[in-house]
Structures are given as C-alpha cells and as structure tokens.
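Appendix B. Raw example, untouched.
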Amino acid sequence: MFMPEKVLAIVLLWMAGMGGFFFILNRWILFTRDFGAKPLMMAVTFSALILGSVWYGWQAGFSPWVWGALVLLVVELLAEMRLHWLRWRMAGAPPVWQENVTEQLTQPFTTQTLAIRRYEIRLPQWHGPRLRIAHVTDFHLNGMLPDSHYRLVMERVRQAEPDLVFLTGDYVSEENSYAAQLPQFLGKVHGRLGSFAILGNHDYWADATPVRDGLRTAGFQTLENGFQTLEIGGQSVMICGCEDPWGDTKWHPPPHAENTLLLALSHTADNIYRLAKAGAQMVFSGHYHAGQWRLPWVGPLMVPSRFGRRFAHGHFEVRGAHLFVSAGIGITRIPFRIYCRPDIFIVDILPEN
C-alpha cells in the first residue's frame, strides 16, 4: 500500500543523511591516514547514515525525528548558500590564458588531460620586473599513471621558462620507493632564479627522508618549515614553506621587512588564514585534487579540508593574500579523475603600475 507520509519521511531522512555523510567524510574521514580499512570505514559510515535513515523512515513514518531531519536540511541549505557566497566574495581574478580546460559531458574521464592556467597578478609590494612562477603539486608517483604523463607535465613547465618553480607536496602515495623517480622527471626542470619544494601528508606517511633526497638530487631546495631569501630586481623576496600539520616541526611566521615580497608554499590551503596574517602576499597549495571526482554544474563532493569545498580549486583573495590551489597532476586510491583535469599554474607577478 502506498503511504506518502513514509515516502516523504524516507526522502527527508535520506537527504539529511547524505549531507551528514559528506560533512563527516570531508572534515574527519579524509583527514585520517590512509590504511587498508579506510575504504571499509567510509562504506560503513555511508551505510549507517544512508541506509539507516531509509530504514527508520519506513518504520517510524513522519515521526518527530523526521522534523529534526527537516531542520538539518534547512541548516545544510543555509551552509551551502554561505559557501557559495564566500567563494563569490573571495574569488580572485580568472586566468588571463588557459589551455585545454573545457569539460565535455561526453568525455568524463580526464585523468591525463592536462590543463594549463596562467595568471597575471599586479602587486603593490612588487617593484621589480615580471616574475614568473610555475606551480606543480600532487604527483602521487604510485604506478597508476604512465611515465609519459609526468614527462609531458615537466616539458610544459620547461616551455613556460619560469623564474621560480614551486612544488607543494605529495610526490608519492604509500610507497617511498617511487621517490627514486623524482630526479628522472625533475632533473631538467628548474627555475631561472631557483626551485623550491615542500612535502605533503603522503610524503610524511610514506617516509619523508627518501622523498627529500630525491628532490635534492633533482636540484630542488626543500624548505620544510623554513624560508629562503632572494634578491630579485633589487628587491627582497622571501620564499617560505609551511608543512603543518604533518611536518616534523611546527611552523612559525618568518621575520621579514615590511617591503619584502613573501611567497608561501603550503600543501593544504587550510593554512591560508595563518599565512595571510603572517604577511604572505601569495600562497601556493594543492592537496585537494580539486575533488578528483566532480559533477557537472555541481563541482566536487569530497574535499579533505576543514573549510569543506571553500578553497577546492582556483584563485582566491583571502585577507590580502592571493591563494592559488591547483588540482595537481596525479591520482591516489581511485585510479582516475572524473570531470576534473590535472593542471599546472603559471603565475606572473607584475608591478602595480
């Protein structure tokens, strides 16, 4: 017998359960270290929230708990509206030039479809010549992608003729033996003025030592939670690393003069507010893979950030700092990307005038 009140109860509880599942997934489960039972834990959480809500709705009908689910749905809707408002308010300037960025509904799998995004940012703190930065992140060397993919990425970086090359972590996934491949891919890619790298969570989980060794052999300076100061065009440029919350030491704001251009590398954009407060004019991050799986017109559902999908991908202006969050070039766990192209960012810094 058709009972509309039970169907309505199931729909409301199911929708509230879905919202609760993705909240727990993004802010807790995805933060935990990868281990064999992690997919099972995700499946159990999903089943408990989704299937449990359907079962309860059928058994209890339109009970007071369903009214609670309705209230939760309203809260989730308001949170979604706030998210879109924040993303609109903090959206930075779009790329001045892009290559290979148009998604096609008939071609959902974009695992090796490399996109290139170039930005031009005019900073009042910068008085030197054009300074070009190439930003690459989240290699995830794990055997899932062919070597030709990484060679293509590095060739496109080399063709950009960057002054500085920034790498922001996760060069391996679970096995640190893949770190031995880093000199092979990075050996011919260097910034004219310097090449710098920090580590990500997977690098620390796999063992940071061989990863750092591979980067240094390739000619990259590993910043960890430290900094390096350069003189470029008669102006001081400080490049600092922030490996919190996974690093061996805690990050502290680097001392710098007021007229110093401070560029920060942070594997996760969750550190943006601390870095902006410390005076960073630009922050380069990855970690989120832009979701790796995205839905057309919706975007990512899974982003391992305490801010949810707020900084999932792109260019943002946050409290005076320009934040660049790349989708990365590799994959982990799930062996493909859906409507989510790997990308590299080319950022040109120009004087305000």
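End of appendix B.
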